[in-house]
Model the fold of this input.
Amino acid sequence: MGFYVAQFLTGLASAASLFLVASGLSIIFGVTRIVNFAHGSFFMLGAYLAYTIVQVLPHGILGFWGSVVAAALIVGVIGAAIEVLLLRRIYHAPELFQLVATFGVVLVIQDVTLWIWGAEDLVGPRAPGLDGAVRILGEPIPEYDLALIVIGPAVLAGIWLLFNRTRWGTLVRAATQDREMVGALGVNQSWLFTSVFFVGSALAGLGGAIQIPREAVSLLMDLNVIADAFVVTVIGGMGSVAGAFLAAVLIGELNAFGILVFPQITIVLAFLVMAVVLIVRPWGLLGRPEAPQRGAAGPLEAPLRAATGPAMAFAATVLALLAVLPWIADEFTLVLVGDILVFALFAASLHFIMGTGGMVSFGHAAYFGLGAYGAALVVKHLGAGMELGLLMAPVAAGIGALVFGWFCVRLSGVYLAMLTLAAAQIVWSIAFQWQDVTGGDDGLLGIWPAAWAGSKTVYYYLVLVLSAGGIYTLRRIVHAPFGYTLRAGRDSSLRVDAIGIDLRGHQWMAFTIAGVFAGLAGGLYVFSKGSIFPDTLAIPHSVDALIMVLLGGVQTLAGPVVGAVSFTLLEDWITRFDYWRIIFGAIILAICILAPEGIAGFALRLLPGRLTGRVEESAR
Amino acid sequence: MMIRRQMLATLGAAVLAAAWWTPAPAADVIKVGEINSYTRLPAFTEPYKKGWELAVDEINASGGIGGKTLVVISRDDGGKPGNAVKIAEELVSKDGVALLAGTFFSNIGLAVTDFAKQNKTLFIASEPLSDALVWAKGNRYTFRLRPSTYMQASMLAAEAAKLPAKKWATIAPNYAYGKDAVAAFKKALTKLKPDVEFIEEQWPALFKIDAGATVRALEAAKPEGIYNATFGGDLAKFVREGSLRGLFDGRTVVSFLSGEPEYLDPLKAEAPKGWLVTGYPWYDIGTAAHETFVKAYQAKYGESPKTGSLVGYNTMLAVAAVLNKAGSTDTEDLVTAMEGLSFDSPSGPITFRAIDHQSTMGAWVGRTAVRDGKGVMVDWFFADGANYLPSDDEVMKMRPAN
Done:
């Protein structure tokens, strides 16, 4: 009995930490609709700052808690500054574009932290007065855990009071429900958004700061916490703080008891719970359906036009250049351009559901990876050749997309995106854990092209034909009646429904098509690298694709290709430098501010309309 | 608007120019490619980089390789195997390096191993521990420097077998390294002491340990001995929760690599006491060769060396030794020279075995203690790697024919 009580309390203590991070994320998203990737970085900064401040302040209870609060406040100020200097400039960019900016912030903060605090893990002091353990029913429980169990609900109560008993809270709740109406009523939205960012970031900083008596402060904290924070937020319902608390307790307890039965489960447990919750309750435990946004996100997207003569001539020139590349470039350039082509196809497939279908995927790497693993597995276990492997890649990914897509298209917005993320994490954990078949973390080796395609030049042509062909096919589908239907469904699902179109069926089909082409890209990738590892399926890879699409411009068909080219070239070039992440982050931030419609969208805006076929007058 | 357009154009041009920019070749240098996860795990790879940079300086100061300057082109793989392979392609086909060295994570090591085999390029894997690298997935072109999982687990098992503990629990991060470390220890200990039992195992996600719950689960099994392979932030959390909850009281704890400064230093006075560990007690080694290394390292960087520093230093010693011995940069000559290559290092003589391409670099085995508020290793001895490798027959069975 005592054992289970102790395990329960341990779960509650973990839940408190989770809740603090997730609540801040939830508040920020609720009001600003920004998917803030930098939230984990704020958590990490909170821990580092508290570590430093606690050594300056006089040792003791006041000094310890003083440093925790000070760290939280400083992080709040940093968050507010980022809102004012950066995010405020891009609120009118296409939906989700702000996440690119927060991704840039993540990179910058990583290197700044490394530069200030160094690479070595830092172990802070324990909390004075709470550095021992007490026995409850004969089981030792750390006093600090008990403190956390109190702090969690206390913060929840504080947020509740702030939201329900102050004018500011009323405005925040109103903005969460309908931010346009709040603006129309004369509330200064800029000030509201900045203050929300302050509170949300301070909560993340607090979450990090109170970790110092429990864990080592390290440079990995940001990425370790961010996925969990999103999961908790989504399970609870985006924008619902009470929901975040409930979800944190659920995850904390399931984890504490889950490891007693099946220790390996921890890598995927939270995502499994999220998948189940979203399938049963599409807006999380306590969330509400997202209110339709009335033109809040910048100018309406202009309808796509067929390519004009000059545009086709340009595309033909690029293709011709690519075709003669083996005669003018060295071997490595072929490898690099091959990589770019593969990623361009991958990004184009994501853009197909995102830009055309209006379904954002945070887990698109799953289909790239399924294709790569599909190809690798038939080569490894069935002794098949490259040809069958390349055929198997889109098939495997297509089947995966067919299965997961059926669940995902039932949702919308960020919830849909998070369900795709859960699906990707489930696939990742299978590849990671099923060592006998997938090789686990050690991956599958020796997946090289067939002898006839063994030379770099021949394989380059193979990649060029299949990638360019894939991108062209996707483009054709967008301009076919199927594509028109998808675009119509994205812009007004109600109208599409009203004229008798099975939108969900179309979306499901689109999801599967995107999966097939991502799988083809994965297949091409595995034969060019010779090996495949679970990291191909992991979150960072999905994020890369997302950044490519958004950076290139989600509202143009050339966007994903331009994004893939710039992202891959930039990365290849910049990683040569020390502290490359801060340079990379700064470039991404510069692009965000200069070209909020993405690089391709920006270029199109500058070109005269007769070249682009774009209607000159604004659609609004 | 004009300014924006110009800025973007300049940016684009800069990117394109840089991507195709190639440094001019020089005749009097020998280029070596080096790849590691510098941004993913700087706590481990920074000391490593400092180590090999010191070695390169010393090698070039004493005349280089047969009069030619040793130039190392070092690149960050960002922790992604696919990136590492792409970089390897560039280093070999564009920069024309004589050989490749480096890597930390086992999966990246394996990816480059496979690349080396496919492209017939010599690869000296410096840091990855995976046994597969030289055995199950070994090949003609890959050699590994650091004592492997199997070797270090055998060193620990040999000492653990002398202790009375019979019921063991294990805790290791849930990925290939953790699984290998547990499997190797179980096998080695069971061989030496057939009546041991393994009654509980915990597999926390890497760098995401739920330490409280995990410690409770271990405690509930009431083991006599605990075998730990967690590291980095996980280790700090595990140690903190474990000592608070009395998990280590009266129990034997055997811990993989935890005596290395990378692991012990951050824990400061909270470092565990009396754990049986493998590690690197650089402060007490005291041999002349090692003292010279420590002094040079401290003089150059103003900080104490870590295990990575020693591995990095030895990596470049190996590179210089093989280039000198082969007298050419032809891969086949280099591979022939690597097989059986011997050289002296701060940690004693090292030989790359011809049979499986594993080096005989050893490790230090001892107990942890706290001295002047810092975690240290005491009662240690140097375990020569050559004594902790399987028999030739076993190796032949595990390693595919080239």
Q: What stands out?
A: The CA atoms of residues 14 and 371 of chain B lie 53 Å apart. The longest helix of chain B spans residues 42-61.
